[in-house]
Amino acid sequence: MSDLLAFLAAGSALGASAGFSPGPLLTLVLAQTLAHGPREGIKVAMAPLLTDTPMLVASLLALSFVQDRPAILGVLSLAGAAVVTLYGLDCLRARPISLPDIRVSPGSLRKGVITNFLNPHPYVFWATVGAPATLSAARSPGGIRAAAAFLFGFYLCLVGAKVCAALLTGKFRSFLGSRGYALLMRLLGLALFAFAAMFLCDGLRFFGLLP
């Protein structure tokens, strides 16, 4: 049970930070919401459910070829620690968002899918963080259930954060431009530093520097 909760927490923290962090997809969520209402913004928020699957599968297949090479896995773990640390720093530096005054046509889901496919961040995340964490969860005592908990927590909070952004923008436009948003991002940033330390420890274990 502890493994399930640990990986659920890790996935949730990573998903929430990615969901609320400023970026192309969140900007499109806000723009579609302002132009056409929360329903269109929510459609954009669903895009990662369609775009991330091939990224995850490709990353898992690539890792399957190097799973018996600790040095490569160690490098990937250290790269994952660096990526998560950068995400944490981005969260700490986050400022209240100025809502875009954009008038765009519907077709929200299609635009969200295209935007996410062209965004390099998901590819980097799944190659260095998402796929290794999923494999680590699958190899833990929790097995497949732990991997499922990680992915469930990640997607629930990733999509959920963007859905919340659409709803808040539709009803309480001031929240994303408030100090409360900045405080939320700082808390998520601190959580990400903790998970970066976990990836760092995994990398050092692959190199035999930690028991």
Provide structural commentary.
It is a single chain. The chain is mainly α and about 210 residues long. Helices cover about 80% and strands about 0% of the residues. It is built from 9 helices and no strands. It has helices spanning about 1-20, 25-35, 40-45, 45-65, 70-95, 110-120, 120-140, 145-170, 180-205. Helix 1 (about 1-20) crosses helix 9 (about 180-205) and helix 3 (about 40-45) runs antiparallel to helix 8. The model has no long low-confidence stretch (mean pLDDT about 85).
Short précis:
By secondary structure, the protein is an all-alpha fold. It has helices at residues 2-20, 24-36, 38-45, 47-64, 70-93, 108-118, 120-139, 143-171, 179-206. 81% of the residues lie in helices and 0% in strands.
Question: What does the secondary structure layout of this molecule look like, with pairings?
Answer:
Layout: H1 2-20, H2 24-36, H3 38-45, H4 47-64, H5 70-93, H6 108-118, H7 120-139, H8 143-171, H9 179-206
Helix pairs in contact: 1-8, 1-9, 2-3, 2-6, 2-8, 3-6, 3-8, 4-6, 4-7, 5-7, 5-9, 7-8
Instruction: Give the overall pLDDT as a whole number.
Output: 86
* Residue windows where pLDDT falls under 50 for at least 5 positions: none
Question: So how many helices?
Answer: 9
- Helical amount among residues, as a percent range? over 70%
Number of strands: 0
Q: What percentage of the residues does DSSP assign to strands (E)?
A: under 5%
Q: How far apart lie the N and C ends?
A: 23 Å
H-E order: HHHHHHHHH
Tell me about the biggest sheet? Answer: none
